[in-house]
């Protein structure tokens, strides 16, 4: 091809806009790398306030930006953290505004046991700093539980071993809350089971969270931060029995007791009934023997004390003798007392002769007569004075009587309502009045003017004027 032909072809090729080229490259990458699986170390991890996570995946030679959208964050097996080695899956895409390519992450899992343990150590340090591992916040396991809650898988040897062990040791009522004990759904179901037990009207006295042994990955659900916080916040004592004796999970540190095996958890939660019965019987026997020894000791002490006391007959002999002597002297003493009082009465009554009494009566009668003679004139003078005062008051009453002037020809004037007219100014022309005389009453009209149909109150008599 000649230079002229090349120039002609370039001039005829269509020109892309920048956005057209950017979005064409975006579609090409997404079509070619719609699903990729990458392994690398996390760096520049940023948890945005809107819930998205922005990060960078790197190895010793290259790095690629990544983003986890908010809807996918809750489904990740591990929490994105700085320095954590992970395996992610997603699709490659571009960000046209800055001509960069990135991976949109949909799943994330640790790249190995070492990464899981490193993440676990960081989480343990965080919860320990908050005081969730402190011994003083752990609740005691009840000695005699009536209801035991068990959170575990409904199938397998774990639940059978727990039920069998509890049945052999203690007659408690067992409530089993079935959950999955492995995988992403395990923490959420166990948290829901704890909330369910707390919502019961009659709560269990103790809760056992149990699972059989397994690898670190199998037991990883029990290292969930939300589950650990739910166990720590439980108001019911919790015994964790996850894995074998050498296995340790995060809930072992926050639970109230850790059991090496599920069977050991059942033993921690329950006493042995036969041992309790034997202990009670032994205590009862010891109590009976101790009571017998105390009674016998008190009996011996009482007997020893009684030996030092005199006999009852000796104690009562002297008082009895004094009583007999007093009783013997009582009759003679009473007789002498009667004789003394009889003599005193005789001395007092001897002057009281009939003649003396008659002379005394004559003297008193004479005194009464003289007093009566002096009182008669005084009584008559008092009565005469009172009569004179009464006559004077009667004359004064007659002179002040309002009816006295009526006898001398005067009359009283009353208004129609019966009130007394005291002056001429109180009367108006044409007013009906009543004239009261000594021998009767008459109606009248002032100044001779009588209103039409005017009548005196309480009278049918017409006016005289």
Please describe the topology of this protein.
Layout: H1 3-12, H2 18-32, E1 36-47, E2 53-58, E3 63-68, H3 70-73, E4 85-95, E5 100-110, H4 113-129, E6 147-152, H5 157-169, E7 173-178, H6 186-199, E8 206-211, H7 225-232, E9 238-242, H8 250-254, E10 257-258, H9 262-269, H10 273-307, H11 312-349, H12 354-400, H13 404-407, E11 412-414, E12 432-437, E13 440-445
Parallel strand pairs: 3-5, 6-7, 6-8, 8-9, 9-10
Antiparallel strand pairs: 1-2, 1-4, 2-3, 4-5, 11-12, 12-13
Describe it for me?
With 465 residues, this protein is α/β, with parallel strands linked by helices. The protein has 5 domains: 104 residues, OB fold (Dihydrolipoamide Acetyltransferase, E2P), CATH 2.40.50.140; 126 residues, 3-Layer(aba) Sandwich (Rossmann fold); 29 residues; 44 residues; 65 residues, no CATH class. 47% of the residues lie in helices and 18% in strands. It has 13 helices and 13 strands. The strands form 3 sheets. A 5-stranded mixed beta barrel has the order 1-2-3-5-4. A 5-stranded parallel beta sheet has the order 7-6-8-9-10, with helices on both faces. It has a 3-stranded antiparallel beta sheet with strand order 11-12-13, with no helix packed on it. Strand 4 and strand 5 form a beta hairpin. Helix 6 packs parallel to helix 7. The termini are far apart.
């Amino acid at each position: 091809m000649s230079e002229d032909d090349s120039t002609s072809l370039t001039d005829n090729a269509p020109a892309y806009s920048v956005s057209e080229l950017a979005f064409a490259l975006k579609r090409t990458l997404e079509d070619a790398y719609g699903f990729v699986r990458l392994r690398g170390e996390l760096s520049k991890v940023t948890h945005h306030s809107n819930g998205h996570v922005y990060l960078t995946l790197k190895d010793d030679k290259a790095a690629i930006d990544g983003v986890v959208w908010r809807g996918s964050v809750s489904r990740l097996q591990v929490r994105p953290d700085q320095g954590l080695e992970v395996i992610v899956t997603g699709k490659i895409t571009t960000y046209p505004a800055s001509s960069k390519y990135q991976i949109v992450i949909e799943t994330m899992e640790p790249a190995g046991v070492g990464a899981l343990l490193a993440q676990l150590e960081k989480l343990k340090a965080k919860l320990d700093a908050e005081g969730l591992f402190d011994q003083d916040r752990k609740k005691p396991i009840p000695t005699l539980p009536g209801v035991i809650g068990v959170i575990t898988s409904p199938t397998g040897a774990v639940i059978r071993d727990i039920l069998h062990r509890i049945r052999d040791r203690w007659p408690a009522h067992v409530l089993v809350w079935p959950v999955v004990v492995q995988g992403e759904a395990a923490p959420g179901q166990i948290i829901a089971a704890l909330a369910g037990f707390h919502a019961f009207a009659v709560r269990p006295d103790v809760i056992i969270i149990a699972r059989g042994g397994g690898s670190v990955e199998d037991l990883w659900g029990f290292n969930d931060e939300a589950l650990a916080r739910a166990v720590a916040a439980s108001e019911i004592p919790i015994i964790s029995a996850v894995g074998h004796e050498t296995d340790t999970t995060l809930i072992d540190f926050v639970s109230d007791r850790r059991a090496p095996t599920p069977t050991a958890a059942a033993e921690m939660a329950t006493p042995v009934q036969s041992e309790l019965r034997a202990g009670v019987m032994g205590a009862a026997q010891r109590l009976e023997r101790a009571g017998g020894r105390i009674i016998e000791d008190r009996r011996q002490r009482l007997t020893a004390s009684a030996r030092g006391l005199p006999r009852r007959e000796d104690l009562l002999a002297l008082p009895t003798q004094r009583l007999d002597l007093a009783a013997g002297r009582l009759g003679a003493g009473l007789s002498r007392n009667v004789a003394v009082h009889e003599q005193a009465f005789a001395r007092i009554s001897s002057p009281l002769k009939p003649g003396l009494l008659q002379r005394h009566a004559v003297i008193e009668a004479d005194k009464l007569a003289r007093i009566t003679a002096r009182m008669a004139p005084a009584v008559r003078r008092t009565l005469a004075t009172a009569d004179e005062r009464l006559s004077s008051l009667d004359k004064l009453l007659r002179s002040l009587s309002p009816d006295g002037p009526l006898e001398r020809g005067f009359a009283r004037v009353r208004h129609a309502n019966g009130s007394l007219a005291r002056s001429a100014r109180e009367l108006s022309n044409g007013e009906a009045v009543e004239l009261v005389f000594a021998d009767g009453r008459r109606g009248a009209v002032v100044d001779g003017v009588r209103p039409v149909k005017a009548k005196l109150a309480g009278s049918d008599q017409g006016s005289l004027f």
